[in-house]
Amino acid sequence: QVQLVESGGGLVQAGGSLRLSCAASGRTFSNYVVGWFRQAPGKEREFVALVDRTGGNTFYADSLKGRFTISRDYAKSTVYLQMNNLKPEDTAVYYCAASETGGAIEDYSYWGQGTQVSVSS
User: Fold this and answer.
1) Which of 94, 86, 93 shows the shortest CA–CA distance to 121?
2) Neighbours of 10 (CB within 10 A)
């Protein structure tokens, strides 16, 4: 039982940065693993990053490790995705999602509506 709303997307030049936010409702926020995914037109939705229930453990797609950072703020019930050194191939709709267990994309039961990130060359 959690509702997610993404924000922070926009247009940025290659090499720039954006910080996405995922605001969660409910008092059970800490019970869920929260992940970020992205989907470009004509492509499958792919995993970006996740943060566990404690906020102390994170995982990233190998191709993105070192450029993206995921974190969570329990006081604000918000998960962030800091994106640095953005590239045109990062252009996609970015979604946050919550899972009771983590794992495969099918294990994420709650999804936000997405926020558009566009990176120009």
Assistant:
1) 86
2) 13
